[in-house]
Amino acid sequence: MKKLLCILITVTMLFSCTMFVSASDVGTFVEEEKEDAFIYEGENKVFMIDQEEDIDNSVRVTQESKYENIYFSSERDVYFQKISNNEFVEVEKVEFQLTDYENYQTIQNYEMPKEVLDGIASMAAFAQENSNMDARCVIFVAENKANGQLNTLPMVTTQKNGYTFHHYEVYFTNMWTSWQTISERGATTSGNLNAIKELVMTVAGAVKTKVGVAYGLFNAGKTCLEAWRAETGKTPIFGNSNNKVMMDVKYDMYLKYTYNYNPVRGETHGCSTQKVIVKQVDTDTYLYTSTGGERNRETEIKSQTYYSPNYKSPETEALIYLGGIAGSVEPLVGDVNGVPVYFTYPDFTWPSDWP
Q1: Is the pLDDT reported for residue 55 higher than 80?
Q2: Paired residues of 333 in beta bridges
Q3: What's the number of CA atoms in the CB half-sphere (13 Å) around residue 13?
Q4: What secondary structure letter does DSSP report for 221?
Q5: I need a labelling partner for 77 at 20 to 30 A (CA). Which of 1, 65, 174, 351 fits?
Q6: End-to-end CA distance of the chain, in Å?
Q7: Single pTM value for the model
């Protein structure tokens, strides 16, 4: 199954050590419930579910909890993507360093919608801005039936209200927001320091909408001030010009692109939705005292998953854009006591050091 483009990827890996394809890599996404299925190869290399589990050449596949609609066969050591209720195609995992332009040039040769490519570039720009050179992008590619090359981003097809939808998915791992200033100088009052306690996930818009359970920033549910006092045993000088509270968030992100489809006009971008897995929060609280500055650094490690409102069922939102106007985007934004924490750019952004 490895054709010319796979060879190109391997060559890129050898020279840059930044791109690789691996069926055994387990990634970094949060574990969720898995499901098994038995599938067999039908026409045109499309695999079907063996409902009765009685076909001799059927293959057992297990759902990958790290990715959407991806299954793995330990027997064949290959991935499959579920592309409809009962259809699968064999796919190859492609993972690469997000900020490396040579890798982006390679995937520009793949068959995928423009919005998906733009989304990868924007995430690369965000990682670059935050000096996050460890950020990775993961896609799964299938064989192009026209030329036999592994260069096609497969779509998941769904139906709703008589309409057909195509969904494309891209994954980003080892993302960091970079250190964000949550409070400093005169703003470090007792009230504000006690209000810094949780990362609240919202959806950006005219009115911010809270989604999911808040992520506690300090051990045992303490506030920023309580955690600092417990660590230092000191009394701070509130509002001192040296005071500063900072935070850095590690996360993984799924981007899903949903298109309306009909045979006449092809695909029309309907909406882009997001899933963010917050994996770690680092905080650094520096407060001045009568005897000098005292610091409390903490790390909270736990995986919490957040979905933009239409991520699980984007079809209804996508139907709004049947007229051909630009699709909607649902960016997730963190909030810590009124201070926004961004996980991506809201609009298309090109990395500053790319040609």
Answers
A1: no
A2: 202, 342
A3: 13
A4: G
A5: 174
A6: 33
A7: 0.87
